[in-house]
Amino acid sequence: MNGRARGSRSGWLAKVAVIVPVLVFVSTEPVAAQVQRLTGEDLDILVDSRWAGTHYGGYFPVRIRVKNNAADRQVTFRIDRQRSVSVSRVIDLGSGATTELTLLVPRVGSNWYGGAELNVEVNGRLVEGLVSRVEFPGQHSPWPESSLLVISDDKVDFDGFDKAVHAFFRTQSGWARASSYGVSSESDRQWITPTLLPRTWLAYSGLDLVAVSLATLEAIDPEQRDAILGWVETGGHLLVTEVGGPASESDRLSTVLGFADRAAADDEWTAASSASRSVAEGFDLSPPKSRQGSAIAPPAKIPTVGPAPEETTTADAGTAITWPEGAAAFSSRAIQQGRVVAFAGDPMTGSQRDWLWFFGSQSDRPAGGRWLEWQGRHGMSTQKRQDDFLGFTVPGVGSVPVVAFLLLITVFSVVIGPVNFILLKRRGQLYLMVVTVPVIAVVTSVVMVSYALVSDGIGIQSLTRSVTFLDQRNETAVTMARVAFFAGMGPSALEFPRDTAVYPVSPSRDRRTVRTGSVDWTDRQVFFNDWVKTRTRSQLYTVRRHQLRGRIGISAADDQGRVSVDNGLEWRLRFLVVADTNGNHYLAQNIPAGGSATVEKLATSDSRRLTPILNLLSEHYSVAQEMAVASQESRGTRPGELPVLFQTGILEVSLGAFRDASGFYRLPPGSYVAIVDEDPGIERGCGTEDKESLHLLLGRY
Length: 701
What we know:
Elements: H1 3-27, E1 35-40, E2 43-48, E3 59-68, E4 73-80, E5 85-93, E6 98-106, E7 116-122, E8 125-134, E9 148-151, H2 159-172, E10 189-192, E11 209-213, H3 214-219, H4 222-233, E12 237-241, H5 251-257, E13 270-271, H6 274-281, E14 330-335, E15 338-343, H7 352-361, H8 374-378, E16 385-386, H9 402-426, H10 433-456, E17 460-471, E18 476-487, E19 494-496, E20 500-507, E21 517-520, E22 525-529, E23 538-547, E24 552-554, E25 562-567, E26 573-579, E27 585-591, E28 596-602, H11 611-621, H12 625-635, H13 650-656, H14 661-664, E29 671-676, E30 689-690, E31 694-700
Parallel strand pairs: 5-21, 9-10, 9-11, 11-12, 12-15, 16-20, 17-30, 17-31
Antiparallel strand pairs: 1-2, 2-3, 3-6, 4-5, 4-7, 7-8, 13-14, 14-15, 17-18, 18-23, 19-22, 20-23, 21-22, 24-25, 25-28, 26-27, 26-29, 27-28, 29-31
């Protein structure tokens, strides 16, 4: 073999050596989940695990329909995955009964590749033939993007959406100059038919966008529709398509969305802006270039995910917007913390620039485009470490006393060694060392344990920061809470209602990427794991959408400019700031539950009267802030990486709007903000001693 042949073969082998690992990596990606039918033990089971989202957090829903063709029995559905979270639910099936249920899998930790198994037990006995494979959505890009679920009877073309979502969020995430090499041509999206739709908002908790036609939204079961609208209230974006005209002219749309029964909603629809349309028309779709004019080399940090990437070409740069202008294309309207976007036609037929127009038009919220994706909207991720973890700790619970521990160990070593030896040798009783050494060790251990029990106790202490958004007309509320724990003795389980989303928060120095445990959905949402560990700082972030019949009654101003306030809630209002329909502001203090007060108008020059509120907020936010800054500075962030901070989420943004006097004057007409002096029913999963917490209530009347 000559040198040229050897060189050719060695070059060919080198290419194979590079290509083969890439092919192996791609082949290990989870395949698209399928609808599966299982039969056995006189059971007919339909399993549908097609879904999108949940990569950064939320619950992955596995929808199940089961028919029992035998006598009454108890059936257990269980999703098992090693070194991860397993979930189960037990149901009683009558003879001939058909039942639908949704098994919700919390996506926590990062060990989700390879899927899981759905197993079925009948009367406590595992049925080997009734096994289904469940695959979970993977990440299609190295930067956060919106996930989309389309509910439609017709198959959907995602081409324009896929290209737009990659292009838009690459610029939002600081990757504008980075090549799209290694990014899957698909995005995080899924199409499902309107069958087996979930009946709980938690099933949609891991999504950013849900698209459904007006006719389908009207036709589905009211409980299924309420689940979608409940998710919107917590911050999601609902795309109602094929409205047939401008949203403001559709009575059908207003009826199905229930605007007449909502106070926490915009008064009118906002048409798509021409400014965001112009930005989309000028959006640069050409491949990123370096300063020398050549294409930027693929960054080493971007992994290869999915099939071969589709590089953007210069031809795409001339793609025209096909949607009409203004309200004829789409309009948006807020519902509680989320938003509904109504499209006159079918947006799934739109081009890349059409979707860029949509994304740009929805980026005018406090956190911009970050509220269009999960971890920006929540300010955290269940798969990443939280950089501001140490900025929120239980008061009075300090760090590990390193100096005291080292001194104690030093004294212990000296006493149990040299001092013990010298004293016994002088007395001629060295044989007693076999007794004195273990005795000294036991006494030292008892002293250390006793000190720990006395200083921190055996109970569970907590610090809570919450905001409750109340819709008095609809008698519903959304409560978001961040809870810090310190447990002298960790709880055996955490129990939450089925309407509460629970997300564990990982400390910035936590190296674990895998969380294990189990969740039982039979009666409630019960976590059996170590999310709150003994004598270790722990945090949970919860989002709850629930019924709340209480209300704050606010009368119209009388001739002297005074208003009457009636506290129809169960908690004392420490401070209450009201903005009436004319834009006037009023301040009330210390209104007990069931009590009332008459207050005068608050002039702009009286902003000093708000000082007690501002001082209260400042004191709460001063807790451990220096520790948080030190933690962030020591860890830092890599170039192009967005920090995961609660300050970007709905909870902190809502609280932060009222940390100065001007924030109170930005209240919309017909609204109020209150600091609740008592715990407004925050779900923590276990009994705790809560201290120095902050609870805000925001609402409209």
